[in-house]
Amino acid sequence: MSSEWLKNFKIAIINEDLEQIQKSIENFNIQNFKADEAIEAQALIQSALELFKNASSRIQSEIIKLKNVKHYIQQS
Description:
The protein is mostly helical. It has one domain. It is built from three helices and no strands. Helix 1 packs antiparallel against helix 2 (about 20-25) and helix 1 runs parallel beside helix 3. The longest helix has about 40 residues, at about 35-75. It is rod-shaped and about 60 Å long.
């Protein structure tokens, strides 16, 4: 179970599939992992966290752009 979870989680990270990453994290159970696998999972989860932070930053940037466009349109 744990090696399958790790494999699927790695694939989701490589593909930057945030939905699959979230599903995997929801199904994460530390009790299914050996110590070395748990350490690997921890590192992968940290990588996934960075992906979510980057996605959040991109979304915030797009929101600012949309607000600027809205403001420009209202001024016209």
